[in-house]
Structure formats: structure tokens, C-alpha cells
Specification:
With 601 residues, this protein is α+β, with helices and mostly antiparallel strands. It is 33% helix and 22% strand. β24 and β25 form a beta hairpin. The longest helix is centred in the first third of the chain and has 18 residues. About 11% of the residues have low confidence. The structure holds adenosine-5'-diphosphate and magnesium ion.
Length: 601
């Protein structure tokens, strides 16, 4: 085929593909236009997952009748002009591409009335074909209806998911926008059913309530402003007892723009390290404010990503803010409270008690609704761990981070061991079960971490050195981290390209891992190192792995004195309520619940 210039029509359909990938992209572009127009209410109606129709109605400033057709021309925008520098862009749109793109791949009807006009106007673009602007009665604001999306682009149509799948994408996206703009009242309805509604009060917690429900809003912790930070970060994060199995519940904005950033999500996840079980994710809304010229929004066709001038700094400010609020509370998980009233399954099902030791999130929580894993309402105990005396203690011990208030354990009287796994104890408010492995992990972890932080190496030579075969590339990891590995007590020697010899181990491991066992633990530690992350957290993960393999196992018989010793040691730790991986060490059967179960009142 000879080289030829594409027709305008074909060229614009191809260009549309960059901005408009699926129904959710249409909704995003239209809603962002509504936000740029200073709307305070935005209603979105969807039919057939958006492939059938998408309607966005706003009460913003509107488009003057004589500009309505211009808005649909390529690169037509009211948001920047020749004098703008493309650096400090304060609006969500700026390229003038969305309306023409949508207009080239759908039938679009726009009805708008500008704030200064007596009457509105209507304009129709039919798969790239323009019509005349006509007068139309309309309230202030803009209403855009998109039907038959991608009917003229079969390739794109083929890649759309089911209506339900596309709707869920739209809902996730709109939920994020609603969280980033709490002063705007959003609603989403699909095929006549309401899916989301926020009231636009301006309070973030109200937006959370509208998007995720009041129960979740109640369990959010507010990030505290840090005047000393270079940027400001505010928002809400879930208390650790509330978590999810995926990352979609983390919303991040920069200067009012909703962004997706793997790195920043990761920063938040890392801040939760030690507070959440493996592979569980928080609900979080993090709003970052930086000087406008610190971010470049013009790097992604859909403007979903931004580039930071000082990325590491942003990353650490976010991490510190989230970590800070988490440090102030990590309650004992109370069994029984918060369950559907009248439910006595807990005491009847012998297997029931053990489940929070497993993965608290994946176990059955049908009563919690909306798929959230919810440990029972911890508020009462949060109060307890904030008692002034526990704070005073924190400043005097100051073992791990002087600014981290110490958690306290209730005063416990050990009764014995159950199932060779749990230590049974009585406390002021009920009966407590302590997971012996998790508790010991916590104890060893803090000890090992303290030595590590003080640069004290405690190493134990192996009677019989162990040889270890490494995964390709792992030797580089060993070389890179050899100082830290030595410091924590590992003595290793290279032995050929992909294997090495372990000669000595961290002292805490010595009794439990010898010979080949030591080699296996070493491989696990390398895995942790390979996972990456910034300094602080991978170090903690490495120490947590060592602690895990140094600790008493489930299924091991403990004498009553050993139980008592372990509880005493646990009491001395800074975070007695969770193991270093974030699982609870202790659960409580509330005495009031027991009385109710036994019909004593
Ligand atoms: P951009 O948002 O990049 O400027 P668009 O193609 O999305 O480009 O929109 C073109 C123009 O149409 C905008 O600059 C704005 O002036 C106008 N516009 C679009 N939607 C609305 C709306 N809902 N309310 C007011 N003006 C709008
Ligand atoms: Mg736009």
C-alpha cells in the first residue's frame, strides 16, 4: 500500500483510543470536565455497563451556546492557552481531546446552559458527524449523554468485558473521585439502581460513608498533620482490624487530582507492615498537597499517573504519615463483640476460635457484609491502650522508636495451655487466648531488632556448616546486603557461582535451626530481601523471618512456667498485640458475652 495520509475520521478514531479505552474512561473524562466546571453535584447514569449509554449531569458553570460545537473540536480547551507553561496545571483537563474523542466513537448529545445565559442549547455529534446547535430549555449546568459507544470500532468493542465488569470499573473509578472530592455530591445509578451516593458535605469521612458505608467510615483513622514535612498529606486510613484482599481500596490524590501510583500504594502498604496479615490491604484515602511545579501531570494519555520531582521525599512523607497514625493504636482483638447479636456459634464450634490465628481476612465473615474482613469493634480497647500511663512508659523505655507509644497487654493470669497451641489466661475483662507461636515471634523479633539497631552481632557457629544452592541472581542480593546479613549474625562464604556455605547463624536461631534447616531459613531471608522496598521495612521483614524460625511452634507442649514466662516476656514488648507479620497474638472472650451466652442476664 502506498503511503497516504489517514482521513480525519479514521485518524480521530485512532486517537480516541488513547484517551477512551472503555466506558469507565468516558465517565472519567466527563466527570473531570464537570469537576473543572466547579460543579457541586454530579449524577452519573449507566445502562448496560456503559456500552448502551452513559449520562453525566452536573450543575457547573455550563458551556455558552456559541462555544458548544467548538468544545467538540480537537484540541479545543478553555483551560490553557498559548501563554500557559504546561507545568503548573490546576485543572483536571487541559488537552481538549476528550469530547472530540468521545464524539468520534459514539453518539453524543450535549445540553448545556451557561451560568450567564437565559436559555440552554443542545448539540448532537453522531459518530464524528456534527449537527447544528439548537436552543433548548435546560437548568444551569451540563448534561452529556453518550450512546452506542464503540459501535464503529469493532476491535475495541470486542475487548470490553461483561456489562457487570465494566460497571464495576466505573464504580471503582467514581468511588475514587468521590473520595478525592468530598465537597461534591456524587451519585451513580446503573440500569435504574443506585450504586453510590455521597452528600458533598466537604468532610472526607462523609464521603467514605457514602462510598463504603457508615460501618467502615467509623473505623477510619485520621492522618495527623505533620508541620515539619515538606509536603502536606492528609486523609484517612483503616484501623488494622479492617482490611481487604486487594488494593482497590487505596485512593491517592495529588493536588486534588486522583492518581494511580504503584509506588505510593506500595508506600502505604509498607506503612502497614506488621499491622496487617500477609496479602491483606488497607482502606486508605491519602491526599497529598505539593507545590504545583513539583508534579508533572502531562505524562500519561489518560492523566492517571503523574511524575514527581522529588519522588523519594513524597514517598517517605506518605509513609511516615500513615505509620504515625497506626502506631498510636493496635488493639487486642476481641472475640464475640460485634458479632450478629444472639450468635453463639463461637462457643459451640470448637474450630471457631482458632480461625483468627489463620488468616483473619479469608475466614468466614458473612455477617460483616460487603466482603470486608472485620475483626470486632475494637474501640473500647483502643481507649485502653491510650491510657496516659502507657504513654509515660513509652517515653521511658523508648526501645523501638521513641515517638511510638507503647501498647499494653491486660494483666493476665495464666491458666494453662490448650491444643498445644494456645495459652489460656484470665484477665480483667474476660478470658484470653494467646497464640504461643505468634507471641514468641513478637518477643524474639523485638529482641533481635533491638540488637540489630544497637549494632550488636550475636552469632552462633554451626557445628556442621550447611551448603545452600541459590536461585539465579540471588548471589547478587547476598553481596549487596552482606553487611546487614553479617550484622544480624549470618556468616556465609561463597562457594561457586550459585551456591554458598552457611557457617554461622543469628544466635536466636541456633537452637531451632541447625544444618540444612539454617540453610532454608537463609533462603527465606534472601526472598525477603529480594522483595525490595525501602530500608526500614525490608530490614524488619528480614528480622521477622528470623524471629519466625526462632520461635516456639504450634503443637509444642509448654509447661505452665514456660507459659507464664512467655506471657511475661510478651508484656515487656512494645507491641504485644500483634506478631511481626500483623497477625493477632491475643484474642479475648469478653466476660459480658460469656454472661449472655450462659443466660446469666
Ligand atoms: P479539556 O477538558 O481538556 O479542556 P474536553 O474535550 O474534555 O477538553 O472539553 C473541552 C472544553 O469543553 C473544556 O475546556 C470546557 O471548556 C468545555 N466543557 C466540557 N465539559 C464541560 C462541562 N461539564 N461543563 C462546562 N464546560 C465543559
Ligand atoms: Mg476534559
Amino acid at each position: 500500500m502506498p503511503i497516504q495520509v489517514l482521513s480525519d475520521d479514521l485518524a480521530s478514531r485512532i486517537a480516541a483510543g488513547e484517551v477512551i479505552e472503555r466506558p469507565a474512561s468516558v465517565v472519567k473524562e466527563l466527570v473531570e470536565n464537570s469537576l473543572d466546571a466547579a460543579s457541586t453535584r454530579i449524577d452519573v447514569h449507566i445502562a448496560g455497563g456503559g456500552a448502551q449509554s452513559i449520562t453525566v449531569v452536573d450543575n457547573g458553570q455550563g458551556i455558552p451556546a456559541d462555544e458548544l460545537s467548538v468544545a467538540f473540536e480537537r484540541f479545543a480547551t478553555s483551560k490553557i492557552d498559548e501563554s500557559s507553561d504546561l507545568i503548573a496545571i490546576g485543572t483536571l483537563g487541559f488537552r481538549g481531546e476528550a469530547l472530540p474523542s468521545i464524539g468520534s466513537v459514539a453518539r453524543v448529545e450535549a445540553i448545556s446552559r451557561h451560568a450567564d445565559s437565559e436559555a440552554g442549547a443542545r448539540y448532537l455529534v453522531d459518530f464524528g458527524k456534527a449537527n447544528k446547535v439548537e436552543p433548548a430549555g435546560a437548568p444551569n449546568g451540563t448534561r452529556i449523554e453518550v450512546t452506542g459507544l464503540f459501535q464503529n470500532v469493532p476491535a475495541r468493542l470486542k475487548f470490553l468485558g461483561s456489562a457487570g465488569r465494566e460497571l464495576s470499573r466505573i464504580q471503582t473509578m467514581l468511588a475514587s473521585l468521590a473520595l478525592v472530592y468530598p465537597h461534591v455530591a456524587f451519585s451513580l445509578s446503573a440500569d435504574g439502581r443506585e450504586r453510590l451516593r455521597t452528600i458533598g458535605s466537604g468532610k472526607l469521612v462523609d464521603a467514605v460513608s457514602g462510598v463504603y458505608g457508615a460501618k467502615i467510615a467509623d473505623q477510619m483513622l485520621e492522618l495527623e498533620p505533620d508541620q515539619s514535612a515538606a509536603f502536606s498529606v492528609d486523609g484517612l486510613v483503616s484501623s488494622p482490624s479492617l482490611n481487604r484482599s486487594n488494593r482497590t481500596y487505596m485512593t491517592i490524590s495529588v493536588n486534588g487530582r486522583w492518581i494511580q501510583s504503584r509506588r505510593l500504594s506500595y508506600a502505604i502498604e509498607q506503612a502497614f507492615y506488621g499491622f496487617l496479615p500477609d496479602r491483606r490491604f488497607p482502606v486508605a484515602i491519602t491526599r497529598i498537597t505539593t507545590p504545583l511545579d513539583d508534579v508533572d501531570a502531562n505524562v500519561h494519555p489518560a492523566k492517571a499517573e503523574v511524575r514527581f520531582l522529588r519522588e523519594d521525599l513524597v514517598y517517605s512523607v506518605v509513609q511516615r504519615a500513615v505509620r504515625g497514625v497506626l502506631s498510636t493504636s493496635a488493639p487486642v482483638h476481641e472475640l464475640g463483640a460485634g458479632r450478629a447479636s444472639g450468635s453463639i456459634g463461637l462457643l459451640r464450634t470448637p474450630g471457631g476460635i482458632g480461625r483468627s490465628e489463620q488468616s483473619p481476612g479469608s475466614s468466614d465473615r458473612s455477617s460483616a457484609g460487603s466482603g470486608f474482613s472485620q475483626w470486632p469493634d475494637p474501640s473500647a480497647i483502643v481507649e485502653q491502650s491510650r491510657l496516659p500511663e502507657s504513654n509515660a512508659e513509652a517515653t521511658s523505655t523508648g526501645a523501638t522508636g521513641a515517638n511510638t507509644p507503647k501498647e499494653t497487654l491486660p494483666v493476665l493470669r495464666v491458666i494453662g495451655q490448650a491444643h498445644e497451641t494456645y495459652i489460656l489466661a484470665e484477665g480483667p475483662d474476660g478470658v484470653y487466648l494467646v497464640d504461643q507461636h505468634a507471641a514468641h515471634e513478637r518477643v524474639v523479633f523485638e529482641r533481635v531488632k533491638q540488637r540489630f539497631d544497637q549494632n550488636v552481632t550475636e552469632s552462633q557457629p554451626l557445628l556442621e556448616a550447611a551448603s545452600v544452592d541459590l536461585a539465579p541472581g540471588a548471589m547478587a542480593t547476598v553481596q549487596e546486603h552482606i553487611d546487614e546479613l553479617n550484622r544480624v549474625g549470618w556468616g556465609v562464604e561463597e562457594f561457586g557461582t550459585n551456591s554458598l556455605i552457611v557457617r554461622s547463624v543469628p544466635a536466636s536461631l541456633a537452637t531451632r535451626a541447625s544444618g540444612d534447616g539454617a540453610g532454608q531459613v537463609f533462603v527465606r531471608v534472601l526472598d525477603e530481601l529480594n522483595e525490595g522496598g525501602t530500608g526500614e521495612t525490608w530490614r524488619e521483614r528480614m528480622l521477622a523471618t528470623i524471629a519466625c524460625h526462632s520461635s516456639v511452634r504450634a503443637g509444642q507442649v509448654l509447661s505452665i512456667d514456660e507459659c507464664k514466662n512467655l506471657i511475661r516476656e510478651l508484656e515487656q514488648t512494645d507491641r504485644p498485640n500483634t506478631c511481626p507479620h500483623g497477625r493477632p497474638t491475643i484474642v479475648q472472650l469478653n466476660v459480658n458475652d460469656l454472661e449472655r451466652e450462659f443466660k446469666r442476664r
